[in-house]
Amino acid sequence: MSQNNRKYKRITVKEELVALTGDAFQAVLLDRMIELTYEAERFDRLIIAEQARAESIGERISMPLMEGWFFKKAEELAEEVLIIDSAKTVRKKLTELVDKGYVLEKNSEAYRFERTKLYKVDLKKLLDEFERLGIEPGKLIGI
After folding, report:
1. Considering only CA atoms, which of 14, 142, 22, 143 is closest in space to residue 81?
2. What is the widest separation between alpha-carbon atoms in the chain?
3. Residues 135 and 143 sit within 8 Å (Cβ to Cβ)
4. DSSP string, 7-69
5. pLDDT at 65
6. How confident is the model at residue 143 (pLDDT cuts 50, 70, 90)?
7. Pairing mode, if any, of strands 103-107 and 117-121?
8. pTM, full prediction
9. What's the N-to-C CA distance of the chain in angstroms?
10. How many angstroms from the chain centroid is the CA of residue 13?
11. Cβ partners under 8 Å of residue 75, min gap 6
12. I want to staple 68 with a disulfide (CB 3.0 to 4.6 A). Which of 102, 120, 125, 127 is the partner?
């Protein structure tokens, strides 16, 4: 694809997330993590619907629910959030978000040998922090 036809990506820096995290890079990364958490939850709804459809015709689909947890490589996140140019910086900022309790982290049961981490935004913690700081979350987290 030529440079003239290139499809450019966009990011948004949300002021309320900067106020919450105190860091624009963390804010952009947290915003993407919120989106990924919601995508995982929407996928769960799809799995449940497909399981119900399969049961209605006497079949069974055995697929575990994600419960909001997702896997994303730091290199992929760096590419997606644009303003963080290295996987190393993404890992550092992600660790800071985990340390603050905004992002939950656990080892994957399926890929233990790879030391794969799964992530999920603690939406309850975010709402509590917004309330404590007097920040209106608005449409930030889908409410």
Report:
1. 14
2. 53
3. no
4. --------HHHHHHHS-HHHHHHHHHHHHHHHHHHHHHHHHHHHHHHHHHTT--------TT-
5. 84
6. very low
7. antiparallel
8. 0.84
9. 39
10. 15
11. 87, 90
12. 120
Range 12-133 classified under CATH 1.10.10: yes
Measured CA to CA, the distance from residue 80 to residue 57 in angstroms comes to 40
Number of other CB atoms surrounding residue 37 within 10 Å: 24
What are the residue boundaries of the structural domains of the chain, listed by start? 12-133
Task: Specify the amino acid at residue 95.
Answer: T
What tens digit of pLDDT does each residue of 26-74 get?
999 999 999 999 999 898 899 999 999 999 999 998 888 888 899 999 9
Structure tokens at 90: 């993404």
- What is the CB neighbour count within 10 angstroms for residue 118? 20
Question: Residue 95 and residue 102: Cα distance in Å, rounded?
Answer: 10
Measured CA to CA, the distance from residue 62 to residue 17 in angstroms comes to 38
